[in-house]
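Q: Here's a chain of 219 amino acids. Please give me its 3D structure as tokens.
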Amino acid sequence: MKNGLTIFAGIFAIVAASWAGLLLTAHRQYGGLAQYVDALDGNAYPLPLSGLADQGRLVYEDLGCATCHTQQVRRADFGADLDRKWGERQSYARDYIREKTVHLGDSRLGPDLRNVAARGYVDGTFLYKLLYAPHSVAPGTNMPAYPFLFDVRRVNPGQASPLALPFTGRFAPPAGSEVVPTRRAVALAAYLLSLKDTYDYPVERAKNTPPAPEKKGEH
């Protein structure tokens, strides 16, 4: 076939141009997003990650947390995320601009974590307990334990660490010992406590609010 190479080259060029256009358009749209400055409180949203939280982001990545957890709250017509109270609103692209690596995930063996810090019962102690002994705070969970993120050490009377976990019963450490989070655990907890997308950007809200249904008789 005389023109086989020409036809192949043409098809390849069309496919390559289509992919390039798709990727470059997405990059231009996302890459052009900046923090939104609220004229009332003067803050720029999303708020930047602290240095400790950014270290925790690396721990999150290293442990492969995105294997079982997503970080994307879908809008109402795409799932029941809002009904599950995983967020107060759907996730926007602007929510992710502060992060060097976005951990959207692709499996929900565990709950979505994009707004885990907005759940009233979640604080540092809860997260440490969940990481060290998941069943102590979430009976029946399929989440694995991460005891290597903690030190179990002897403690002298009156010299307990302020970070020692208040375990009792079968989860308590041996008598005379305490469970203390390592630097990696502290950083991971700081990262998780930074996941709180509750600010509703006016531009995104306007774009994603469905129009009100027309009343009968209106044209």
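Q: Can you summarize the key feature?
A: The first strand starts at residue 36 and ends at 37.
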